[in-house]
Amino acid sequence: MASRPAALRRALQFSLRHSRPSTFSSSSSIRSFSSTTPSLAPPNPTPDYAIPDPSRPTHFGYETVTESEKRERVAGVFTSVAESYDRMNDLMSFGWHRIWKDHFVASLNPGFTPLTPDPDPRAPQHILDIAGGTGDIAFRMLHTAHTLNSNPSVRVTISDINPAMLTVGKQRSTALPASQQAALTFLEANAEDLTRTKPLSSTSPTTSSIPDASVDLYTVAFGIRNFSNIPAALREAHRVLKPGGVFACLEFSKADKWTPLFTAAYREWSFRAIPLIGQLVAGDRESYQYLVESIERFPSQREFRDMIVDAGFAVGGQGWEDLTGGVAAVHKGMKPRE
Amino acid sequence: MLLVPYTMEVALRRFAAIAARPNALRPCATTATALTPSRRQYWTPSRPPPNYPGHIPLNTLEKAALAIGSGLISLANPRRADLIAAFAEATATPYFIYRLRDAMLASPTGRRILRDRPRITSTSLNLPHLRSLPARTVGRTYVAWLDREGVSPDTRSTVRYIDDPECAYVMQRYRECHDFYHALTGLPVVREGEVALKAFEFANTLLPMTGLSVFAAATLKPGERRRFRETYLPWALRNGLRASEVINVYWEEELERDVEDLRRELGVEPPPDMRAERKAEREARKRAREGI
């Protein structure tokens, strides 16, 4: 008889190979082919580096700072850029960030759950969009779920550590249809500790916690590179996701999949043109210098995939998808079922 | 200006060279996150080292882009003082800021200013003391102008894009003395007054930003444009060219001096009072409207 961990691995590999790689739908009940119910090995104790420590050194762009200082400086950057954030994104990527975000949401296809026993593929879902302040991903999720998949029981929680970004998102959300606005919640939270969240512009100091195993889909788009402690955020993601839930991350990555000429041109554009555009449009060269340095500091696709696996997720195939030659990459992982 | 024909070939060769050569890599400190290699190096654009704190050395293409972008945006939105400053710095080289620095070196007072490098900030001027000075002094005229216009000697942005440290100081000095030029000429802070003062500064300092700012006259109202064309532009050119270099005035030492004395020494005659003219025209228009 095969050992239990081996049976679990086989079951997962089978299910991941055979499920369509682009639709990690949370409510799919994937049958395991071994008759015994594999039990998980005892969970690994959280390693030291995954516990947030305010005085541990990390990086802020090319500077070395402590984790708490990084949090403050990132707050300063995003409070400064919040007003012009959307316009700057368009200018920096020539509008291509919209294509990336559309592809990201389309490949997740929220609201569509064809593998449920119920003939109606419209099960309720709870989506948590982390660092989603201005709402780009959340609004697309709502549109796909409510309008394209006709699934009104999908609700989205937008969480961000920065109230200025959330305020921009809330203001933009007033243009949505009322049913979608009703399905939207705004939360101020640090992704490394989702046990202490509070609603946007709440004045009371009481915080609430996002319960374990309460989220079907956890997304973070262009936010995770700003976190002080990425392994801690990945473990929090693992905690709040339901078994079978999906972790999806859209982030800038190493643009080395096309020619070296393209990589060189991309780097020159990033380091010379983007701070200049930041200065002209937003009056803030330093914030955009930090942004391009943080992109350069972010781990490569392979390294980040390994971090995701280390946090307890299972990945399918190579674990990531390159967009635009690696300028951006979509990483997905699934929290294994018990 | 040395114009490099930036053809496609040159661009491709440069990019191929950048891709091929080992880039200016920076070693990073080891971070405690798992699975990142320890001696990772991070790409930085090949820039020469800074010559003074806050210096950002830009290459020709970046400077040109900054000049064009800041020029257009500050023309459309003159409230972007940071872009007007950046425009001045981006267009000051190659020739003009060196000419201004040499004009300072040619005068004994200018040389002393370059040696002492005084800075004018809201803390370095003692405004209550200036208010207590007699009415016809430079200091009193300056404070009276600040109070009349409702402005303060706010800190100007620091120079970042000029490579030579001494020329960077010259630009910083010009920027900080701008309010004194307002007081010297009596021109107000409204757009009309700023354009007229820029014309005067161009005739006197030859900085390209000042000259190009005169194109902002196209954004003035018709009455203002007429006044500028008939009165203030001729005044600015005549006095700017006739006057000695205002950049060489050691303002910190001239605060207790009689302002007419200073004007005579420099060769500057004040223009017609712009605020009075604007008010007279407003009242004439109101009377005409009500009369009919």
TrEMBL record, chain A:
Compositional bias segments (type: Low complexity): 21-39
Pfam families from the UniProt entry: Ubie_methyltran (PF01209)
Pathway given in the UniProt record: Cofactor biosynthesis; ubiquinone biosynthesis
Reaction catalyzed: a 2-methoxy-6-(all-trans-polyprenyl)benzene-1,4-diol + S-adenosyl-L-methionine = a 5-methoxy-2-methyl-3-(all-trans-polyprenyl)benzene-1,4-diol + S-adenosyl-L-homocysteine + H(+)
EC number: 2.1.1.201
Localization, UniProt: Mitochondrion inner membrane
Signal peptide region: none
CDD domains for the chain: AdoMet_MTases
GO cellular component, one term: extrinsic component of mitochondrial inner membrane
Single annotated GO MF: 2-methoxy-6-polyprenyl-1,4-benzoquinol methyltransferase activity
UniProt keyword annotation of Transferase present: yes
Membrane topology value: Peripheral membrane protein
GO biological process terms held by the UniProt record: methylation
SUPFAM superfamilies: S-adenosyl-L-methionine-dependent methyltransferases
Residues binding S-adenosyl-L-methionine: T134, D160, N190, A191
Gene3D superfamilies per UniProt: Vaccinia Virus protein VP39
Record keyword Transferase present: yes
Family assignment from sequence similarity: Belongs to the methyltransferase superfamily. LaeA methyltransferase family. Belongs to the class I-like SAM-binding methyltransferase superfamily. MenG/UbiE family.
Role summary: Methyltransferase required for the conversion of 2-polyprenyl-6-methoxy-1,4-benzoquinol (DDMQH2) to 2-polyprenyl-3-methyl-6-methoxy-1,4-benzoquinol (DMQH2).
Subunit structure: Component of a multi-subunit COQ enzyme complex, composed of at least COQ3, COQ4, COQ5, COQ6, COQ7 and COQ9.
Record PANTHER family: 2-METHOXY-6-POLYPRENYL-1,4-BENZOQUINOL METHYLASE, MITOCHONDRIAL, METHYLTRANSFERASE
Full protein name: 2-methoxy-6-polyprenyl-1,4-benzoquinol methylase, mitochondrial
Organism this protein belongs to: Schizothecium vesticola
Gene: COQ5
UniProtKB/TrEMBL annotation, chain B:
Keywords for the protein's UniProt record, in alphabetical order: Lyase, Membrane, Metal-binding, Mitochondrion, Mitochondrion inner membrane, Ubiquinone biosynthesis, Zinc
Protein location: Mitochondrion inner membrane
Record field: catalytic activity: a 4-hydroxy-3-methoxy-5-(all-trans-polyprenyl)benzoate + H(+) = a 2-methoxy-6-(all-trans-polyprenyl)phenol + CO2
Protein's membrane topology: Peripheral membrane protein
InterPro entries on file: Coq4, Coq4_euk
Single GO term (MF): zinc ion binding
Principal subcellular localization: mitochondrion
Domain of life: Eukaryota
Parts forming coiled coils: none
Keyword RNA-binding part of the UniProt annotation: no
Cofactor: Zn(2+)
Pathway membership, UniProt: Cofactor biosynthesis; ubiquinone biosynthesis
Region of interest (Disordered), residue spans: 263-292
Binding positions (Zn(2+)): H178, D179, H182, E194
Example of a GO cellular component annotation carried by this entry: extrinsic component of mitochondrial inner membrane
Family note: Belongs to the COQ4 family.
Role description: Lyase that catalyzes the C1-decarboxylation of 4-hydroxy-3-methoxy-5-(all-trans-polyprenyl)benzoic acid into 2-methoxy-6-(all-trans-polyprenyl)phenol during ubiquinone biosynthesis.
Quaternary state and interactors: Component of a multi-subunit COQ enzyme complex, composed of at least COQ3, COQ4, COQ5, COQ6, COQ7 and COQ9.
Name of the protein: 4-hydroxy-3-methoxy-5-polyprenylbenzoate decarboxylase
Provenance organism: Schizothecium vesticola
